[in-house]
Amino acid sequence: MLNVALAKGRLADSCADIFIQCGIRAEILKEETRKLVLETPDKKFKFFFVKPSDVPTYVEYGIADIGIVGKDTLLEAGADLYEMLDLKFEACKLCIAGFPEKREVLLAPHLRVATKYVNTAKKLFFSRGEDVEIIKLNGSIELAPLTGLADVIFDIVQSGGTLRANGLVVLEEVFDISARLVANKVSLKTKAAEILPLIADMRACIDGMQA
Q1: Helix residue ranges, H only, the chain
Q2: Strand 132-136 and strand 152-157: pairing?
Q3: DSSP conformational letter for 164
Q4: 100: Cβ–Cβ under 8 A, 6 or more apart, which residues?
């Protein structure tokens, strides 16, 4: 049996569609339930529903053999696992954003950056040799420049609608983000006969959808 860590919601729904196309009896993922652990009828797959930020942890510690998680979460977690496949859905960008008339603010010393991606932001600005103050926020990140809490924000941008509604723009696109399939390092060796064919099937399915 393969153990799979998933986050509930749109990501799980998209994963279910791919799994089903790959011949996995994953219809259970589409059922309304409060259960946190589900098994396929043939007992070949067990799915754990966890918070998105916890998927890398469950995979890294081997509770789940594989997992599906956003690239932004992977960057932030820094977990010791293998990133195996870009699933291409839930695509967006991790960006630096702020007021359009303040593009030069990125060159200012002691830049204040509001974000929930604290670890990723620290690594990014440290790699550039820039002196910044990282301000951790958990929600409504766009409010930080409006109130003067921060000069810019470092956050996920999909349609950009929330930025525009608040007079903000993307100042720099930093990372391309999408859902990724990750694997536990030990499981990839001990369950290679199950994991590798699944990855090949999923890759073929995604390529077919992109064609």
Answers
A1: 10-21, 55-60, 71-77, 118-127, 143-147, 161-165, 185-190, 192-210
A2: unpaired
A3: H
A4: 167, 168, 169
Q: Do residues 34 and 97 touch, judged by C-beta distance below 8 A?
A: no
Report yes or no on whether pTM surpasses 0.85: yes
DSSP code, position 66: E
How does pLDDT run across 75-127, given as a tens digit for each residue?
A: 999 999 999 999 998 899 999 999 987 666 666 678 899 999 999 999 999 99
Number of domains in the chain: 2
Q: Are residues 59 and 120 in the same domain?
A: no
- Rounded to whole angstroms, the Cα distance separating 75 from 122 reads 11
Q: Are residue 182 and residue 84 in the same domain, yes or no?
A: yes
Site of tokens 């359009």 = 100
CATH at 42 = 3.40.190.10
For residue range 170-196, what is the model confidence (pLDDT) as tens digits? 999 999 999 999 999 999 999 999 999
Say whether both 167 and 68 belong to one domain.
no
Q: How far apart are CA 54 and CA 73, in angstroms?
A: 9
Give the long-range contacts of residues 203-206, CB within 8 A, separation 24 or more.
203/85, 205/18, 205/21, 205/22, 206/18, 206/85, 206/87, 206/88
* C-alpha dist (Å) from residue 47 to 5, 7, 68, 163, 192: 6, 10, 11, 35, 18
Q: Are 179 and 72 in contact (CB under 8 A)?
A: no
Residues 86 and 182 in one domain: yes
Look up the domain containing 122 and give its range: 92-176
